[in-house]
Amino acid sequence: MVIRLALPLLAATGVLANPKRGLVFVPNEDHPEDNKIWPEDSAISWYYNYESRPSPAFADISQSDFAFVPMQWGVDANNPTDDTFLRNVEEQLDGGTNITHVLGFNEPDGTLDIGGSDTLPEVAAEAWVVNFEPLAKRGVKLGLPACTGGWDGMPWLRQFLGNCSEILSDGKDDKKNCTWDFLPVHWYDNVEGLKSHINERREEWPGVEIWVTEYAYAHKSLDEVQEHFNTTLEYFDDSDFIGGYTYFGAFRSEVSNVGPDVTFLNNDGKLTDVGSWYMGRSATGVDPQSGRGESVMISWAIVLGSMGMVTALLL
Ligand SMILES: *[C@@H]1O[C@H](CO)[C@@H](O)[C@H](O)[C@H]1NC(C)=O
Ligand SMILES: *[C@@H]1O[C@H](CO)[C@@H](O)[C@H](O)[C@H]1NC(C)=O
Ligand SMILES: *[C@@H]1O[C@H](CO)[C@@H](O)[C@H](O)[C@H]1NC(C)=O
Ligand SMILES: *[C@@H]1O[C@H](CO)[C@@H](O)[C@H](O)[C@H]1NC(C)=O
Predict the structure, then answer these.
(1) Which CATH class is domain 18-314?
(2) Origin, by domain of life (predicted)?
(3) 20 to 30 Å CA-CA from 66: which of 92, 175, 191, 298?
(4) Helices 121-131 and 153-169, axial angle in degrees (round to 10)
(5) For residue range 3-54, what is the model confidence (pLDDT) as tens digits?
């Protein structure tokens, strides 16, 4: 009896949180209501925002409901040993916030114009020793810098780890390696390519835990996007070596830089099929490119404005 009563309640009020599934949070300042969507009644259990501090939109939500994972986005090459990131994370830990994981630099092998942090391995290594090593001592799990999906990623990481080890060992015979717990990757192409990208890293570092911290099937049709979405989700959830994943698409179609059909929201801020599936809910049938959109609203305002002027002149 109890079970029969409880079941509909569960179905009506909540979906099970998926511990691997996270959010790449890209705040929408024009439509702050979009920001509130993700943690509510959702399978998404954690998020990152490319910053060391949590987003104001989620300030009231506990770590156990929606865990914040801080990131040091890049490194100031003129001041690589700046410890702002460490201090910001320690402040959260000291204040009782249960920070369990942190992320290294965003696309250090990519240039600024494509969103990379354009950081040399030896510069990144200096920053790592100052900002990340002390967090490992406090039990926080460290994610290596997330390189682009390009060929430069592996050489960058090898050099980074070598440089880091040199700094930590400080010329002593007893070589030490820098600490890290998992390896984030980014991927915007097909599933076959994603798997081979991941397997290449599993061969280099046997037993490695992979986090896919940015992915989508960029600039593809809605059918291709949805098939890719389903296949990758199943692969991530079923593979023990995948520790976390965050789809890149939690924004409206019109602002997407990875194609108009990959997004979780249409131009009115309504959940698309993939957006709803990602949250653990059922299809909505909402076309990503549907909705009026901001640019259309702006041009309407201009049209109405000039019509008003015409009317005024006529009168
Ligand atoms: C912090 O969160 C982790 C993962 O959810 C949990 O295992 C751990 O017990 C928590 N620690 C504290 C002090 O609450
Ligand atoms: C970093 O690594 C590269 C390649 O292994 C090496 O040439 C360079 O000397 C290293 N730099 C530092 C500061 O350790
Ligand atoms: C350091 O890392 C290198 C490369 O992965 C590995 O060959 C070596 O055994 C490691 N050394 C220590 C002391 O763990
Ligand atoms: C994707 O999965 C959903 C269920 O989660 C299903 O309804 C849909 O038909 C699938 N689409 C494709 C293209 O596999």
Answers:
(1) alpha beta
(2) Eukaryota
(3) 191
(4) 50
(5) 333 333 333 457 999 999 999 999 998 999 999 999 999 999 999 999 999 9
